[in-house]
Amino acid sequence: MTDGDWDLLVIGGGITGAGVLLEASRRGLKALLVEQRDFAWGTSSRSSKLVHGGLRYLAEGRLRLTRESVREREALLRDAPGLVEPQGFAFADYGASRRKRRSFLAGLAIYDFLAGRRERHWVDAGGFAMLAPNIEQAGLQGGIRYMDAKTDDARLVLRVLDEAREHGAQARNYVAVDSLLRSDGRVIGARLRDARTGSIHEVRAPLVVNATGAWAGALAGQGSAPRLRPLRGSHLVLPAWRLPLAQAVSLMHPEDGRPVFAFPWEGATLVGTTDVDHADDLAGEARVTRAEFDYLLNALRAQFPQLHLEDADVLATYAGVRPVLDSGSHGAPSKETREHLVWDEPGLVGVTGGKLTTFRAIALDVLAHVARQMPAWRPDLSPQPVFAPGFLPRGPRGVPAALLLRLAGRHGRHAQDLVDGAQEGELEFVPGTLTPWAELRWAARAEDVHRLEDLLLRRTRLGILLRAGGAEHLERIRAICQPELGWSDAHWEAEQAAYLALWRSHYGLP
Ligand SMILES: Cc1cc2nc3c(=O)[nH]c(=O)nc-3n(C[C@H](O)[C@H](O)[C@H](O)COP(=O)(O)OP(=O)(O)OC[C@H]3O[C@@H](n4cnc5c(N)ncnc54)[C@H](O)[C@@H]3O)c2cc1C
Hints:
The chain has 510 residues and is an alpha+beta fold. Helix content is 34%, strand content 23%. It folds into 3 domains: 8-44 and 154-227 and 336-373, FAD/NAD(P)-binding domain (3-Layer(bba) Sandwich), CATH 3.50.50; 87-147 and 229-325, 2-Layer Sandwich (D-Amino Acid Oxidase, Chain A, domain 2); 401-506, Helicase, Ruva Protein, domain 3 (Orthogonal Bundle), CATH 1.10.8. Helix 1 (15-25) crosses helix 8 and helix 10 packs across helix 11. The two termini are 41 Å apart. Bound molecules: flavin-adenine dinucleotide. Flavin-adenine dinucleotide is lined by residues 11-17, 34-37, 41-44, 47-50, 52, 176-177, 211-215, 219, 233, 273, 320-323, 354-357. Residues 398-490 form the Alpha-glycerophosphate oxidase C-terminal domain. Residues 7-353 form the FAD dependent oxidoreductase domain. Belongs to the FAD-dependent glycerol-3-phosphate dehydrogenase family. Its cofactor is FAD.
């Protein structure tokens, strides 16, 4: 890795770093990415998993950001079927003023105009109950239905990294940058530490991109990173049978009027999110607090009173930290801008903030800054298809077409090998999820899994979809994955104990 004659070193294996790696390597740069933990370990596996145009930005009058987000959402829907999917949203109306209703519909009209199709509809109370069964009926006037999209955020990062590798890039997990190397005031590379062996290496590159998200200011030797205000957002996951939804439901929280949503995701129901200052040490993982847990559950109890939802209905929780620029206003977290920021110093381009949805646009913005420091490189920075066109894998008779599409979306050029490698019964789903057992085998075989948590929290999402992190299935998971990983019994058992302890402390009920 360090012997390579790199044009570009990207630090951070979240969606931003992955996007920069892909867009740079498809334009001819020889690029290396390093991630201190696992790919997507940071915010990019802990988002709300929506690929959205950002209605909120529209309400704030930020048309440019909405236009860009809608364009990127449409590109992802077109180029990543099976990974990014349309998601209908339903917003119940309990007698809002006519003015409010009209302004919401006007906002949606702009949203539709930007996407080039009409998706918004007013639905009367009877129709709305079909879209969102169990919703509070008292005072329900009807509601508004509109479209956005959803994804599996960690798989999106992995797919982007894989596409970058196809263009000759390299990406390594569990390799941290300890500090930047400088010469005559210019960044000329970085000091890397292998997080598993502790060995130290130096790598040189004419240009370094700092894409470390919420950690942007923590990198030693990093001079000019902006001041960030880390804001935590937490989520709950419930079994679909306890909170069955035909659509995403978005609602205003009865306590403070903030938007909260619940939507069907991977066979379960995902609920989010909060927006609070995150004062914990960024070296550890974020976790939901009791107050956030109650806040989200209270929103569900108010919107779905007859379901009598309780703590024990929650399968898992997770929290992420938004890398939000600090305006210094100390105002409400939701008032801080969600736009990304790019900064330069000689030999380095830094980037932080933004959204999962707009990763391609952010990457192109970063590369415009990179190009200014590399006069010999004159790239065409117009957007290209997110992924090269893919093919549906062929499966044995009886395998549902939706499963093949899912595998094509998540695994791209490897989907056929994944299907071919599946053993008897492994194209069936892990109960209660949409994950076939074969995805576990493939991840263990070919996807840089070094820890059991990589396999269960990011290559697959079983850790946040199953009660107790999937403890009841660990025996079968072990039978499939231990031989693929080449781990001894002692190694597996130590990993299993570490995973279950992590799950209890950070993904269970607070
Ligand atoms: C609660 C929440 C909900 C969200 N929901 C949505 C949504 O629905 N839709 C949407 O579009 N966006 C959403 N976002 C925003 C989106 O998730 C983030 O903007 C995006 O994931 C940030 O990606 P990133 O790559 O910049 O950061 P990260 O994903 O955090 O990646 C940075 C990486 O850098 C690594 N790193 C740090 N220091 C070093 C070092 N020294 N050496 C090597 N590696 C290092 C970290 O380990 C980390 O993996 C949400 C964010 C949050 C917090």
